[in-house]
Design brief:
By secondary structure, this protein is α/β, with parallel strands linked by helices. About 30% of the residues lie in helices and about 30% in strands. The chain folds into 3 domains: about 120 residues, Periplasmic binding protein-like II (D-Maltodextrin-Binding Protein, domain 2); about 120 residues, D-Maltodextrin-Binding Protein, domain 2 (3-Layer(aba) Sandwich); about 60 residues, Alpha-Beta Plaits (2-Layer Sandwich), CATH 3.30.70.
Length: about 325
């Protein structure tokens, strides 16, 4: 009889959501209907999947409305959500940067702010990340010197908070790059390559943080034995994909007289499998290596081995952390 229990999983929409679906599919979880519904079917019938905006996910997971989810560390930081980070999924890498028109001589955020305040002018910023931006402004020497512990004024259509209108952070609903210099003096936005900033004649003058996608869980859900087991199953499979992307599976044939020399000279070979071939005096060696080690290994492989075959693994599962097989 199928279990009536459900683990509530949420993934983001948009570009980050597509990457989330791809990593689940590489982990052998089938997802269908994502193009037609915000509640796609998930391959595990004990998992209930929902698609939400990445900005919302940290809070819904923190409050227990969802048990586990994928979102960026940027939104976890922005919302201050008290979630348990389960795994860095290492995709969706972006930088949160400060930018201003190229025509302005300032090369840092501190210089830019000082150039306005020294003339008695207000300093205006447009950002979707209100709290991160406000904290960043407060960390600058020019701000500390002039305003000490005053809070920048955060402005949205519904409310205003903070006691320092000389540093105003306006909530952006998009098209952030179009606002300088007529509407605001600086923007804070995410970028992958910097191309959009370049196209809008903007330059980066500061990096607030770097972000990747994270698998996060509700703290109470992790205390529930059944939910914790399901969350750890997700972690095992997804981490297998993350690790596989950094590895290569190599196969080589080596003569018996070269075998020990090969193994001793290639420290990158981790516990290789060595098997005798049908032709006497020859052995097959196969192992998983880091991609970054391959080119350094080639000169030794060329000298001591033959028939190099390379595969890119899809999933490498490490079960030691969760199982009893090594006890």
């Amino acid at each position: 009889m199928p279990s009536s229990k459900k683990l509530k999983l949420t993934i983001p929409n948009g570009h980050l959501g597509q990457k989330s679906i791809e990593i689940f599919q590489k982990a052998y979880y089938k997802i269908s209907g994502q193009d037609r519904s915000y509640r796609p079917a998930f391959g595990d019938p004990e998992v209930e999947l929902r698609v939400l905006r990445p900005q919302e996910i940290p809070l819904y997971v923190a409050d227990g409305i969802q048990d586990v989810g994928i979102t960026g560390i940027d939104w976890i930081t922005e919302t201050g959500a008290k979630v348990e980070e389960v795994l860095d999924l290492e995709f969706g890498g972006v930088k949160l940067v400060a930018a201003t028109p190229k025509s302005h001589p300032a090369e840092t955020v501190n210089e830019l702010m000082e150039s306005f305040w020294s003339k008695g002018e207000d300093f205006r910023v447009s950002a979707e990340y209100l709290n991160i931006t406000a904290d960043y402004l407060k960390s600058q020497p020019a701000y500390k010197k002039r305003f000490e512990k005053k809070e920048p004024m955060i402005i949205t259509p519904w409310w205003r908070k903070g006691d320092n209108p000389k540093a105003a952070v306006y909530l952006s609903f998009g098209a952030t790059e179009a606002k300088p210099p007529e509407i605001v003096d600086m923007i804070v936005d995410v970028t992958e390559t910097g191309t959009t900033l370049e196209q809008n004649n903007l330059k980066q003058i500061g990096t607030l943080m770097r972000s990747t996608a994270r698998l996060v869980a509700n703290k109470k859900a992790l205390k529930d034995l059944w939910k914790r087991e399901k969350i750890y199953d997700l972690k095992i499979m997804l981490r297998g994909v993350v690790e596989a992307q950094k590895q290569l599976h190599i196969f080589v044939n080596v003569k018996e007289q070269n075998l020990q020399k090969l193994l001793s000279q290639l420290e990158a070979l981790k516990r290789p499998t060595v098997s005798p071939l049908s032709e006497k005096g020859w052995f097959a060696v196969n192992s998983v290596i880091n991609k970054k080690d391959l080119h350094a290994m080639l000169p030794i492989l060329k000298k001591l081995a033959q028939g190099l075959v390379i595969h890119e693994p899809q999933n490498i599962l490490s079960l030691e952390e969760f199982g009893e097989g090594n006890e």
